[in-house]
């Protein structure tokens, strides 16, 4: 698995987790979803992604985006 796919998979899991938490725990968890979306948006423009840095340190092969 490349770094790009790992980051996309992680983002997808986090979005789904935040939706489940919003539905079943407390509506304020929607802000976690907002944070994830904002982080993805800034990453698209700046190329800076903390998750990509962590996955790269773990040893994932570089992809095209990160």
Topology, pairings included?
Elements: H1 3-24, H2 30-46, H3 50-58
Helix pairs in contact: 1-2, 1-3
Description:
There is one protein chain. The chain is mainly α. The protein contains three helices and no strands. It has one domain. It is 73% helix and 0% strand. Helix 1 packs antiparallel against helix 2 (30-46). The longest helix is centred in the N-terminal third of the chain and has 22 residues, at 3-24. It starts with a helix and ends in an 8-residue tail after the last helix. The chain crosses the membrane at residues 7-25, 31-55. It comes from Shimia aestuarii.
Instruction: Give the beta-strand count.
Output: 0
| Mean pLDDT across every amino acid position | 94
- Beta-strand level of the residues, as a percent range? under 5%
The portion of residues assigned to helices is over 70%
The global form is: elongated
Rg for CA atoms:
13 Å
- Helix segment count? 3
Unreliable segments of 5+ consecutive residues: none
Distance between the termini: 13 Å
Instruction: Describe the sheet with the most strands.
Output: none
Structural class: mainly alpha
Domain Inner membrane protein YgaP-like transmembrane: 2-56
Protein name: Inner membrane protein YgaP-like transmembrane domain-containing protein
InterPro entries: YgaP-like_TM
Transmembrane segments: 7-25, 31-55
């Amino acid at each position: 698995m490349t770094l790009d796919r790992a980051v996309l998979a992680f983002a997808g899991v986090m979005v789904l987790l935040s939706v489940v938490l919003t539905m079943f725990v407390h509506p304020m968890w929607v802000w976690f979803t907002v944070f994830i979306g904002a982080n993805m948006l800034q990453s698209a423009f700046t190329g800076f992604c903390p998750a990509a840095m962590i996955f790269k340190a773990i040893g994932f092969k570089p992809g095209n985006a990160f």
